[in-house]
Amino acid sequence: MAKAAPARRGIFHSARARQEALTAYLFIAPYLLVTLVFTVGVVIFAFYISFTSFDLFTTPRWVALDNYIKALSLRGDFIRSLVNVLWYVVIVVPTQTALALALATLINVKVRGAQFFRTLFYAPSVTSSVVITMIFWWLYLKTGYLNYFLTQLWGLFGAEWTQVEWLNNPRGLIQLVARAMGSDIPSSLWYLRGPSVTWMAIMFQNIFTTAPTFMIMFLAALQEIPPTLYEAASIDGASKWQQFWRVTLPLLRPVLLLVIVLGTIGTWQVFDQVKILTAGGPLDTTLVPVYLIYARALGTDGPPQMGLAAAMAFLLAIIIFLFTFLQRRFIESGTEQY
Amino acid sequence: MATLARPVNPSRVILAPAAPLTKVLGRVLIYGVLLLVGLILFTPFILAFLGTFKTNAEIIAWPPRLFPAEWRVANWPELLNTDVGGLPRAEGATSLGLTAGVFAFFWTFLLGGLSSEAKGQGLPRSIGLPAALALVVGVGLAGAWYVGLRFGAKPVLSWSTGIATALFALIGLGVLAMSRPDWGRVVAAMAGAILVGALVAVLFEQLALAAGGGRFVRWLFNTALLSVVRAITQVIFCSMAAYAFARLAFPGKNLVFNFMLASMMIPGAVTLVPTYVVIAKMEWINRAHALIFPSIVNAFGIFMLTQFLKAVPRELEEAAFIDGASYFQIYKDVVLPLARPALLTLFILQFQGMWNDFLAPLLYTQTPDMWVLNVALSLFQQNYKAQWNLTLVGAMINAIVPLTMFFFFSRYYIEGVSYAGVKG
Q1: How does pLDDT run across A86-110, given as a tens digit for each residue?
Q2: CA distance A43 to chain B (A)
Q3: What pLDDT does B255 receive?
Q4: Residue A281's closest CA among A169, A201, A185, A146?
Q5: B261 at interface of A, judged by CB pairs closer than 8 A
Q6: Which pLDDT does position B421 carry in this prediction?
Q7: Could you tell me the residue ranges of all domains in chain B?
Q8: CATH: 3.40.190.10, 3.40.50.300, 1.10.3720.10, 1.10.455.10. Which one for B233-424?
Q9: Beta-carbon contacts below 8 Å between A and B
Q10: CB-side exposure of A292: number of CA atoms within 13 Å?
């Protein structure tokens, strides 16, 4: 049966090769179908509608670059949301990465019952962000446990803690410092105020949820490191601390890159917490791009603006690509010494 | 692979008897730190769990107390029976049943149509193939007709459902046709699978109707059904694609594979708006279709399984091939059993992915009868008039399932991460 085929089909050596290829195409057909419609088709479509005015019900109207210009106008919501989310990325990514690494190193010790502790540590990550957000909402209430804890803590030092409405406090970090020194930052200079108290409360919650996820990644990598390396290092007289910096960390570099890149991609697209807790408030200090895209696409205030939402999504994607590209360059250039 | 056990550190064995006191103290210290950190990370859950037994006045009172004054266990059944006023509408239930039915059909057909020997017996291909194709069209028409029957005048929805159903039947038929089958058996299997699919569809539709509209039980049912259907379809379709990428030669393989890797970099935010438009145009809003069909496969799952299969020796498959087994038989009888740990990993990750998904269900569902737990929970504060105790009960019920899964299958979570990230 191997002889007849080449005459009929040029690309295949034999009937068997042809059959193999056809089978393969059928096996990947579901993926191709889904990806052609919901990835390729949809991205091209998004690119098109980002140049149109489109409300889902009427035909799209060509408006050229209007959506992009509107999104990038300095007084617009989108710039505001980018500033907010930049604070978020800059604070959350390093913190959660460091915390994840610390947790992984801690849980990697060989003791009995490690499995139990692993579940305990990982609990915030396997449960849905909605569950954690609802619980934190309750903990953040004015009469909640966080205020209670801080009251007790301050009480230990004889000080008085005034209960804070964590989820309704637009004051910025830098603004608070300025107020402590007797001045204030006017609202026209909002970008100098720093992340608001509410925004930092959400950051705290996100670090709490995401750090254990990345802990598992570090843990998987730590378990791949051959123990002989540590033995060699300890024979050479390296302390535990030196072993961590000189053996563990260099070997974790690829995972470190992965964790930072994934963390960055995730934090730029923060949505769930904002949607549930604040809807962008108070005073737009927790407004983030994906929430804005969601709100414009669905038209929560006014008619749906699909074109504007698509334009904002592309701008956000470009920023994310740039960020991950730079991180990759930065971390990989550091790898060359090994 | 990636065994967690490690050869015992010899230095530790030698040192242990020499310094017993520091060793014991070190152990105590380690346990102390582990317990402390674990407690900090778990505290929100403990507080929330205790909160589920308090009255609503007590739960928001100042100062908050750790234990309830009186243990109010009745909060739990109360939540299960609270109704936010959603009607038990047939349409939503139909779409839930249909998505389950389509994939029950697909898999029954593939398994039933597979014959190990008996080539050339029974129906000749010239009759069997047209008959099977007619049945494919019939499946599509039946799906469209049934949706039309339940939803009234919604032609776009009927046709998009019908075409999606028929496409799966066609793929299944193609896969079987490539394995030189017994055509009589294929036609019989298709007919039988149609029956199974229809039964599953009606069964789950009726279950959904029995679970009511805007009640917690229904949201639990929706979430569980969608999570299981998504996990099963992902396991089937990702493993099929992974088998093709890892084992079969075909023109354009590297192109498609590299494209797939690149597509994993596209942020979800970019596809959000146009996907919503496409789903809206197909009239899939507020239907289970929108949550299942676009995510029957994903690039990450295919990549993970491909990496796994590449590491598995292929001697067994070659032996089977020499014995005359078709590619689909090898996939089903050799590859799937070998890949079981990786498949279980994918199942767990996808189940958890759907269970914890929020943005997609929020976008694509509207009425209370179609909500999943996460959407319902996020809207509790409106629907339950700020009843924090009930909200926390809901949160706890939602959390129990993924937590239990992780406790029993944590090895697979870690392996999933290491296939995808560390070794890829």
Answers
A1: 999 999 999 999 999 999 988 888 7
A2: 6
A3: 93
A4: A169
A5: no
A6: 53
A7: 18-81, 85-210, 233-424
A8: 1.10.3720.10
A9: 298
A10: 27
Cβ atoms within 10 Å, residue A174: 13
Q: Is B67 on the interface with A (CB under 8 A)?
A: no
Query: What is the DSSP annotation of A20-69?
Result: HHHHHHHHHHHHHHHHIIIIIIHHHHHHHHTTEE--SSSPPEE-TTHHHH
Hunting for tokens 């950190």 — which residue is that?
B37
Among chain B residues, the shortest Cα distance to A19 is held by B178
- Quick: pLDDT tens for B180-201: 788 888 888 889 999 999 999 9
According to DSSP, the residues that pair with A52 across neighbouring strands are A62
Give one DSSP letter per residue of A226-276, joined into a string: -HHHHHHHHHTT--HHHHIIIIIHHHTHHHHHHHHHHHHHHHHT--HHIII
Report the C-alpha gap between B309 and B306 in whole angstroms: 5
Partners of B185 in beta bridges: none
Q: Give me the sign of the Cα torsion angle B323, B326, B327, B333.
A: negative
B228 reaches A (C-beta below 8 A): no
Written as six digits, the tokens of A317 are: 């994607």
Structure tokens at A105: 């190193």
Contact criterion met (CB < 8 Å) for B398 and A130: yes
Q: CA–CA separation, A215 vs A218, rounded Å?
A: 5
Q: Count Cβ neighbours within 10 Å for each residue of B364-402 and write b for 16 or more, e otherwise.
A: bbeebbbbbbbbbbbebeebbeebbbbbbbbbbbbbebb
Instruction: Collect all residues with Cβ–Cβ distance below 8 Å to A86 and sequence separation of at least 6.
Output: none
Quick one: pLDDT at residue A12?
A: 67
Which residues in chain B are closer than 8 Å to A268, comparing Cβ atoms? 267
Are B375 and B361 contacting, i.e. CB atoms less than 8 angstroms apart?
yes
Interface pTM (ipTM) of the complex?
0.84
From the candidate CATH numbers 1.20.59.10, 1.10.3720.10, 1.10.540.10, 1.20.1340.10, the one assigned to the domain spanning A77-335 = 1.10.3720.10
Ordered by start, the domain boundaries in chain A are 5-66, 77-335
Q: Which residues contact B298 (CB under 8 A, 6 or more apart)?
A: B234, B238
